[in-house]
């Protein structure tokens, strides 16, 4: 088994050299192993100096507040809301937004965003539901891991929610915009598309830069950093792309958030033939990303 992993890494290394991919050893920046209640964490966002996260579909509809320095769970907000397939979390000054738009089979017709006031986050009656759909999708037959209408990444920017699809079949992410002030089912506005070469699992926006993380079907983990060329436009120029390692060493990366200190990345537990890689929280200072070390 070790020989197979070595071959995969050698092929990956040769391919990335040709693509001008930088190397960053994410495992060096592990802050902590996250609590077992976050084995399937998905998404990160900052609010009031704390990181907020959640678990994806098949888990409770709870929101977790964690310390960014230790990864310790400080508060669990027990929610009566339904979790069909929560995959992303974002925030503005007044609300949390949850992306209930996981769609592995591409067959969902109930994609939605939950808009939760910060001061009433436990009250179901205070939450608004923002229904949306992808106007390009006309076929809703179940195609597990074989469609381009699954999403796990979202940021709040310029009064809108920006969604980035996973790209199971195309290897590309599509950027859509949804208006959080409009609650009826709305057509997501397609902005642009970019061939990332990996499945996008989360997004962050900071200082005119978009950060996308994800992994390939070979368990290679990547981070791409795009510079905003115009307000809300990211894919006109090539990004800085970083190879972070494999899920066999850092887990299945599912969350990213950025502040003035650096980049926070979270992973869910990853099962391997040799055992389980525990869920973790990582922190990479901006200076290390610039150096690509």
3D architecture notes:
This protein is about 10% helix and about 45% strand. The chain has 3 helices and 24 strands. It is globular and about 45 Å long. The protein starts with a helix and ends with a helix. The protein has helices spanning about 1-20, 245-250, 285-290, and strands at about 20-25, 30-35, 45, 50-55, 65, 75, 90, 95-100, 110-115, 130-135, 150-155, 160-165, 175-180, 185, 190-195, 200-205, 210-215, 220-225, 240-245, 250-260, 260-270, 270, 275, 280-285. It has about 290 residues and is mostly beta strands. The strands form 6 sheets. A 5-stranded mixed β-sheet has the order 1-19-18-17-16.
How many DSSP-defined strands?
A: 24
SSE pattern: HEEEEEEEEEEEEEEEEEEEHEEEEEH
Structural class: mainly beta
Count of helical segments? 3
Spatial strand order of the main sheet: 1-19-18-17-16
Q: Mean pLDDT, nearest integer?
A: 92
Whole-angstrom Rg: 18 Å
Main pleated-sheet profile: 5 strands, mixed
Helix fraction by DSSP (H/I, runs of at least 4): under 10%
The general outline is globular
Low-confidence stretches: 1-11
- The N- to C-terminal Cα distance equals 28 Å
Instruction: Give the percentage of residues in beta strands.
Output: 35-45%
